[in-house]
Amino acid sequence: MLATYTKGENTMADLTAVNQGSTALRPIKVSLLETLRMIRQSYRQPLEHAQDMQQRYGNAVMQRIGRQSYVNLYGADAHRLALVNEGQIFSNKKAWDMIIGRVFPNGLMLRDGDDHRYHRRLMQAGFKNPVLQGYLADMGPQVHAAVEAWEFKPGGSLLAYPLFKRMTLDMAATIFLGMELGGDAHKISRAFEATVAASMPRVPLAIPGTILWRGIRARHYMCRYFQQQIKRKREGQGNDMFSLLCRATDEEGNQYTDEEVVDHMIFLMMAAHDTTTSALTSMTYALAQHTEWQDQLRKEALAIGKDALSYHDLERMPQTEWVMKEALRMYPPLSSLPKYSLKSFDFEGSTIPAGAMVVTYPIHTHYMEQYWSNPTRFDPERFSDERAEQKTHAYCWVPFSGGAHMCIGLHFAIMQIKLVMFEMLRRYRWTVPDTYRMPVQQSPISKPRDGLPIYLDALPPRAIPARS
Ligand code: HEM
């Protein structure tokens, strides 16, 4: 069976006959040297790489590396096709297993079809509104204390990225795992960092001393630690995410097994931490460059007139949300989204075979002039209700993906980002030199190569209401 996707009316249908107008997509012919250059560029400069490929070869490009076919699809229509996944053409499991399956097996993103639906339904227990409100109440004092403790000389600089990384790791320990900071939490954080480092190793060999080997050992440590906690978590009343997943039950009374809880927790910590760190970093950079926006957001934060944010106060930060969306447009933490074709399918006149790694590029779509006015410009107002450029196409803004695998932690991430910004804006003013450009390493998850040095000034205390 061949599935067909037709551009224009955005309709998709399962067809049993081959589309007459369509031709089989063939691998592009390039030298080995050029292939290596392309692979390097795709890691180092995914935006330039995608723009270059799309201009040279069009919206569907196939490359063969060894026995594996890789197909790049460009544009918002490609995202719609891959993310809506009508007719179950694509497997998330097969794609992500090939990339992070050794250290994050059986995570929610590495599941398909009914199995995925079942696991996702149970996981909702950790993401419902009242639960998020509880997380926010717990995170507030922690973020406040962390931001207050930043050490720097007046007018001196700080590396923003490691600070955010520390903060999100600490929050993973307390909010996700219900741990006290220090002691075991520190050990778990270190093991977790080794696991993440091993998720996309340059040397994919698990022999003593390699990053992959260290990552697998660290994963075993975490598995043992979590296993020991499960009985207590199942019987207790805790409201941390670990406890909630241990007790989650569906309508038929099904629960996660112990192994499933462990796999989900390790995956969740990974999914939550580097992505949010990346988003906070790019927002901080954008606000350091565009201090007029920083002043504007500071006014918004101060106008709330409170020292601690409640869940409902989050709605009173619409401009902070525009800036976050704009930062995620310009620097999506995941610049590409891989899927694996289980069936052959048509895309804009090309037939793509089963068994291909099919990759779409949020970072490329986020800069297409077809959807965005002046896309290289930092312009948060494009997300205002009046302009709403993200609605030009339902799949032109996809930092959180879409369809069945759309990020389940989206609201958690927005809440956490607003909370950190709320604390930073009221306490500090930060800048970067006019000539500074953040050197971005886009892959696997967008981050600054230099840690993002920012120059910080503490605001006069009158701008900071006393904490009750
Ligand atoms: C700015 C922050 C974040 C970004 C940009 C982001 C981005 C993404 C993307 C692109 C995917 C889908 C990948 C695919 O289509 O295969 C995804 C999935 C997922 N994310 Fe996030 N994420 C963020 C924060 C979080 C947080 C805070 C959590 C948990 C608290 C989380 C948990 C997950 C999970 C469990 C999945 C798998 C969903 C599924 O397969 O059903 N993410 N995220």
Automatic annotation (TrEMBL):
Keywords in alphabetical order: Heme, Iron, Metal-binding, Monooxygenase, Oxidoreductase
UniProt xrefs under InterPro entries: Cyt_P450, Cyt_P450_CS, Cyt_P450_E_grp-IV, Cyt_P450_sf
Cofactor: heme
Signal peptide start-end: none
Keyword Oxidoreductase: yes
Superkingdom classification of source: Bacteria
Record has Iron as a keyword: yes
Family: Belongs to the cytochrome P450 family.
Protein name: Cytochrome P450
Organism: Candidatus Marimicrobium litorale
